[in-house]
Each structure stands twice: as C-alpha cells, then as structure tokens.
Amino acid sequence: MDTVTALLTWVESTPLAVYIAESTVAFPVIEIVHVIAIALVFGTIAIVDLRLLGLGSNNRAVTELCRDVLPWTWTAYGVAAITGTLLFIHHATEYFVNTAFRMKMLLMLAAAINMVVFELITVRGVAKWDRDVPVAPAGKLAGAVSLACWLGVVGFARWVGFTVGVPQQ
Amino acid sequence: MLAFSEWISDSWLSLAIRKSVWLIPTIQITHIVAITMIVTAAVMIAARIAGLSGRSQTLRETAQRFLPWVWTALALLTPTGIVLIIAEPQRTLGNGTFWWKMAMLAIAVGLTAWFQASLRRDAEAWEDRGQKAGARRLFAASNILVWLGIVATGRLIAYTY
Known about the structure:
By secondary structure, chain A is mostly helical. Chain A has helices at about 1-15, 15-20, 25-50, 60-90, 90-95, 100-120, 125-130, 135-165. Chain A has one domain (about 1-160). Helices cover about 80% and strands about 0% of the residues of chain A. Chain B is mainly α. Classes of the chains: A mainly alpha, B mainly alpha. The interface between A and B is medium-sized, with 30 and 27 residues.
C-alpha cells in the first residue's frame, strides 16, 4: 500500500499534474472534453445495447449496427481515457481513495468483462440471431448488463465531482 | 433578477430541495444522462449527413431513429433543469454563463425543429443525391457545435457562479 501511495504522490508531483492543479483553465477545459467524450461513449453503446434488447434500431442487423456505431464508441473512449487520466493525476491520492471513483472503475471493469464475453463467446452464434428482435437470451443479457454498467459509470462519475475536493458544485 | 432569485431561494420548495442530500445529485445525473442522448443523436445525424456512418440507412431513417431521442431528452432536461434552478436560483439566473446556455438552447431547439420540418416537407432533397448539400453540411456542423456549446456552458456554470 505504501508503494501505491508513493507512486500516486509522485504522479501528483509531475509537472503536468502540477500544471493542471494550478491552472484555473486546465481543469474545466479537460473536464468538458471528458464529459462530451463520456456522453458519446454511453450514448453510442446504448444504441447497440437497446438493439440487443429489441428496444431500438430493430430494422438493422446487430453486426451491421455494431460495425457502424462501435468505431465512434472506441474513438470517444480513447478521448475519455486520456482526459480521464489527466483529471486523475492532478489529485491522484484523493481520487484513489474516493469510493465513488472506485465504484466507477469497478463498473468499467465489469463492462469490459461483459464486452469480452460478448465478443469472444456470445457473438459466435450471431448468424442465427443477427436480425432477431430481441436477439438470443445471451445477447439480450449482454445488452442489459452493458446498459446498467455504463449508466452506473455516468452516475458515479458525477458523484466523484461531489465528493472530491475540486473547485466545482 | 436578484430579488426574484432571492424570492425563489427563500421559498419552502427551494429549501426542501437543498435540504435533501441526494436530490440534487440524482437530478444532475438524470440531467447528464439525458444530455448524452442528445449529443449522441446530434453526432449520429451529422455522421450520416457526412457519410461517415449509417450509410445503409437513408437520412430520413437515421433522423427517425434519433430525433425522438432529442425530444425525449429535452422532456427530461427541462423539468430537471427547473428543479436545479429552484434549488439554487442565483447560481443560474444571476450567472451570465447560464444565459449563454439558454440562448444556445433556443438556437438548438429551433435548428432541430427546422430540420425535422424540412425533412418532412422534402426528404428527397436531404438524401445524398439531393440538392441541399450546403444546407445539409451547415445544419450538421452548426447543430453539433451548438449542442456541444450547451454542454460546455452547462459545466462552466459551476465555475462562474
């Protein structure tokens, strides 16, 4: 644990982290980009999840919709990850012990596991249910889990803002 | 405006909202989830117009898929936004950033309504081989910019208050 604390303290002392912490403009600007990016991550994932649940885009095949929408999700995810890291480093020790932040990371991990299971196992049989509404139960479950996880991520992300001592509220 | 803000602020309703520890966060989270729907809808429609996504769909089909998201989200954003104003009126009503946001919101709603009406009137003109290429691109770009401006000023309210 001491090593972790030492590492986080070091991260906080890097010139970039100090700059973000001291600048009045850096934090809000990075935060706005982060919010826009996560809006697109959640929104575009939701398009696929709702299709798996049979609640939208039902006229389109699952594979076609994924090809169409998921590149946007990944691009937005990249932006969210970079800006998120920048936000994290400026108060690394504080975020690390924050419960809302930990819940958010945990839910992102759950969403990632759900995605890997879907991509490696569930999708194998996709030819059989590509156009079904809703899709096979395993696909439907993946959609529900994903939607719940990402909704939680957005919720806890906002909660971090209420509980970490940053200049907002 | 200050007197009006104070009058709201002193009302029992405003006090009740502020007294609850979970109400404002919950409403803000709902507000943010609704805005994710709008940003996504605006980007998906623009991406279709630019030919970057959804090319198997006509623009009309894409609009039919995502325009309801915009109106549904606005139906969530308006009441939650009003509750946030009632809770802390001076934070918004006395804040220039908030009024910038409202001005852009008026433009965004106008643009969306115009797009929807124009598409209903002459869907063919909006398709890839239609004549409205300039209008299509101008709409897509300005629509995204205005909505992103709304998200940005929305977040900035917390810093300029």
